[in-house]
Amino acid sequence: MHKDIGSITWIALKIWLLAILFNTTMGTAFLTGFFNYTDEIELLIIYGTLLGAMYSFPVFVILCIIIYRCVKKQRTGSRIFKTVLLSGIMLSMLPFLVFNNVWGGGSFWTHEGSMLLSIAVISGIGGMATQFKPLVKLGAAYKPENL
């Protein structure tokens, strides 16, 4: 895999889009009582996807920067993945906190708020976990037989 800005952006884009997909799916399931309220599902999917993309776009940009800097510093593939995973966990909380503050969703200390925050973090982890191999391949000491 080439270690150019295009491949780094592509990996970050896949992480971001998959995290939005996971977040929309799990958030819709939770908010509709696991799809018991079918009249709200379409609306939640549309707004969840659009608002999720809008509020989390800065995370995509930051992920690109983090991955690029790791590659530029010639980190190993496992170190790149660990760095992206740990920073991604923290970064996945930011869009939720901003969204919650802007839309007045109440405290995230409530049961619903803590569940939605957990969904956001799990979605971020899920998006990053799907890109394990591409992130490892960006590493300085990458050897195909080690994967």
Describe the protein's architecture and organization:
- The protein is elongated and about 50 Å long.
- It has about 150 residues and is mainly α.
- Helix 1 runs antiparallel to helix 4 (about 110-130), helix 2 (about 40-70) crosses helix 3 (about 75-100) and helix 3 packs antiparallel against helix 4.
- The chain has one domain (about 5-140).
- The protein contains 5 helices and no strands.
Describe the biggest sheet? none
Number of domains: 1
Rg (CA only): 17 Å
Percent helix, as a range, is over 70%
Structural class, from secondary structure content? mainly alpha
Strand proportion: under 5%
Our measurement of the CA-to-CA distance between the termini, rounded to an integer number of angstroms, reads: 14 Å
Provide the fold topology.
Blueprint: H1 5-31, H2 41-72, H3 77-102, H4 111-129, H5 132-137
Helix pairs in contact: 1-2, 1-4, 2-3, 3-4
